Amino acid sequence: MAIRLKGDKDIENIPSIKSKALKINLNEHIYGSFAEIGAGQETVRNFFRAGAASGTIAKAMSAYDKAFSDAIYGVEDDGRYVTQSRLKKMLNHEMQLLEERISREESPNKLFFSYANTVATIDFAKKFKGHGWVGIRFQVDPNEDYNEIILHVRFKENDARLQQNTLGVLGTNLIYGAFYKHHKPKHLLKYLYDHLHKDQLEIDMVNFSGPRFADVDNRLMSLELVKNQMTDAVMFGPDGNNLLAGAILYKKNILALRGSYRPVTKVNMDMFQKSYDMFVNDQRVDEERTKVIFEITLSNLKSGCEHEEVNERDFLDRAELLCSLGHTVMISNFQQYYKVVDYFSKYTSRRMGLAMGVNNMVDLFDNKYYTDLPGGILEAFGKFASSDVKVFLYPFMSEERGLITSDNLKVHPRMKELYKFFKYNGKVADIENFDPNILGIFSRKVLSMIENCEEGWEEMLPNGIAELIKKHNLFGYKQEEPV
Questions:
Q1: 2 versus 28: which is more confidently predicted?
Q2: pLDDT, tens digit, 9 for 90 and up, residues 195-232
Q3: Which pTM value belongs to this model?
Q4: pLDDT tens-digit profile of 244-278?
Q5: Would you identify the CATH topology of the domain 246-438?
Q6: CATH (residue range 2-216)
Q7: 8, 26, 103, 265: most buried, per Cβ within 10 A?
Q8: Which residues belong to CATH 3.90.950.20 in the chain?
Q9: CB of 461 within 8 A of CB of 265?
């Protein structure tokens, strides 16, 4: 028996994959079907091998041929098979068959489930590692509606057979977790890696739905994926729903803005609007294929202590304000900007933009941020140079030096030549037409004013944001008691 990874508060022996499958099989109430496309019947195999499967497995199938798959589940509008839409059709179809063929009157205590996956494992040339969608629709009470857990995964191993085995372990962990750990969704996420390593598999999206997950905020579940290092970054849209990065960034021009947004201010919006105008006016940028991302790093969700827990309420406050302004939010583990560029480069080769302030630009040329790279800062800037990326620099008003732009900002003396090379090779553009009247606005100042009930902070925020803060008592806002 293995021991659960260090850091899990519930230290306990991890049940083997066989014992998990057997526990499901021996539960006389659990009954359902398996439908697996693209990597064989790897999950259901674990249940067959465990024994006593006849009372659990209603049907196991693999509609591997595309024509048969289309005939069973219908044709996708985009012609693809490894999609969330395909997975949902599989879950719907298999559950409908189960309900049609098994009488509730004869089986009043049965807990129905349908498990499905649609995946593409590594290709023969080993250039494409593979990815897939995995999900389960299930009951924990025969009189309740169905619950659902859907995952998107990316394979990291370099062998198709290893990826198939990994998928089988993940699927078993998911089914076991759905029935026995659904009351602890955060723990359930961790248990998905039982007998797996993060070098084998990345889970970059998860969605919980159904009566048992009515109180689950999927944005917080996405945050858990990043906190637990199951993935490097997650995204959600203006409606608050989780998004798959590959689906929204594929072959797009990307403009990213990093900040704490605690709260979002007029400066943040001015930086966005002015950098966006410059970005889309670039001949190498297609406005119709441009995606704007507001990024918050995990370190920006903490007050400073490395081991401090993320304040989930504070995280949701920031996310809700950005979403209310119609923006897509990304939470990442990327402290260094070159990692952001690396991440986006997985999905696009088109021109990218990074909008940042002067202080962030100075940090970009600080060698202490590149100690994890064998080649140090030169290796990081080699990654910048090989990518089609441009920095849009928002100015800073200094009491001592006046307006600071790319022409007069100061980096470490040893970095001057590197900075000159970076700037004069067209990698930096000063943001033009900025609003000089708002340069003195800083999020930390606004936050302090809100917390101390000072007047005047409302004027420092975009339209509608102050009203939301007051309405929902965000960032420690306290309504004044009537005299």
A1: 28
A2: 999 999 999 999 999 999 999 999 999 999 999 999 99
A3: 0.90
A4: 999 999 999 999 999 999 999 999 999 999 999 99
A5: Rossmann fold (3.40.50)
A6: 3.90.950.20
A7: 265
A8: 2-216
A9: yes
